Amino acid sequence: MTTKVTVASFRRREYIRLFPKQQLLVVGDFMVDAYVRGTVSRLSPEAPVPVVEVQSESLQMGGAGNVLSNILGLGGTCIPCGVIGNDSAGEWMRQTLTTQGIPGDGMVIEEGRHTTRKTRIIAHRQQMVRYDEETRTAISKKTENRLYDVIEGKMPGTNGLVISDYAKGVITNGLLKRILPLANKAGIPVIVDPKLREITSYRGATLITPNQAEAAMASGIVISDDASLLTAGAILLKKMRPGAVLITRGEKGMALFEPGSTVTHIVAEAREIFDVTGAGDTVVATLALALCAGMPMSDAARLSNVAAGVVVEKVGTAVITKDTLLARL
After folding, report:
1. Is the pLDDT of residue 21 over 80?
2. Candidates 275, 281, 299, 323; catalytic one
3. FRET pair for 120, CA 20 to 30 Å: which of 7, 76, 158, 184?
4. pLDDT higher than threshold 90 for residue 13
5. SS (H, E, C) the chain
6. 62: left (phi over 0), alpha (psi -120 to 50) or beta
7. Is 299 a catalytic site residue?
8. What is the pTM of this model?
């Protein structure tokens, strides 16, 4: 049996006012999102491709860094822990964290590794092409040990753990087997944006947030309608128990599967979708702050759905703010 619900009048504002009291530990794949914006008025004489006349360039935190930016935008505080390379992108990330008053000593440097940098070429509000510079192999055991030591040292005093896995090699099975019990022992909620195909690697998390494609892969079920969605969700829930599963479905909204509860279907909030880049990061950040503030999980999922609806209306990696979220509510 399923229950369809919409965003209702909960005490959401009171919970949001508690966001500044929450300090989250964010572990994952920190990246740099580069944007080159311009206009197109002609095709190249060298090949049938548009010529972009560049008007501006900018850099933003991406991946786990975008989760961090969203948490800060919503009023929370963050401690980042990840792995970067000894390169210009890694240096930019360290300097950016310092500028924001965030401790950067949780960022472990691995020699010979590239800090992931995704460069997007955008013209007339449309992404023309993207090129990536990165290392996707698993971090070394030595680096994993160093990262674990940093996480262990920074976890006391935090209200929750966010694991942002983009399959860039930082979130290894070995690291998960060590930090999940650590968080469980500390009694803090763990929210995971997963990428590993074997979903049981995240067992011990409070909530995982796969998108529909990831849920289909992890469950072995092609999700084509409500019936297959329920089957896939039930399989993932069984694998994750006692944790919960939130399947994000883009314009189709979300479906929350909680142990011992009916499925909660949440209708998408976006008025017009321009770019889904970073929407999952916004969902995870909002969920984490809401759960740490004490909001019931179904209400936290609804709130994250509202936040995601705001950012997909913008082009590029967008960040939600507390004021914007309150205004949308």
Report:
1. yes
2. 281
3. 76
4. no
5. CEEEECCCCCCHHHHHCCHHHCEEEEEECEEEEEEEEEEEEEECCCCCCEEEEEEEEEEEEEEHHHHHHHHHHCCCEEEEEEEECCCHHHHHHHHHHHHCCCCCCCEEECCCCCCCEEEEEEECCEEEEEEEECCCCCCCHHHHHHHHHHHHHHCCCCCEEEEECCCCCCCCHHHHHHHHHHHHHHCCCEEEECCCCCHHHHECECEECCEHHHHHHHHCCCCCCHHHHHHHHHHHHHHHCCCEEEEECHHHCEEEECCCCCEEEECCCCCCCCCCCCHHHHHHHHHHHHHHCCCCHHHHHHHHHHHHHHHCCCCCCCCCCHHHHHHHC
6. beta
7. no
8. 0.91
Is residue 287 packed enough to be buried (19+ CB in 10 Å), middle (13-18) or exposed (0-12)?
buried
Residue 256 and residue 5: Cα distance in Å, rounded?
11
What is the C-alpha separation between 217 and 237, in angstroms, rounded?
A: 14
**Tell me: the pLDDT tens digits for 298-310?**
999 999 999 988 8
- Which position has the token pair 């008053």? 101
Radius of gyration of the chain (CA): 20
Cα distance between residue 232 and residue 24, in whole Å: 30
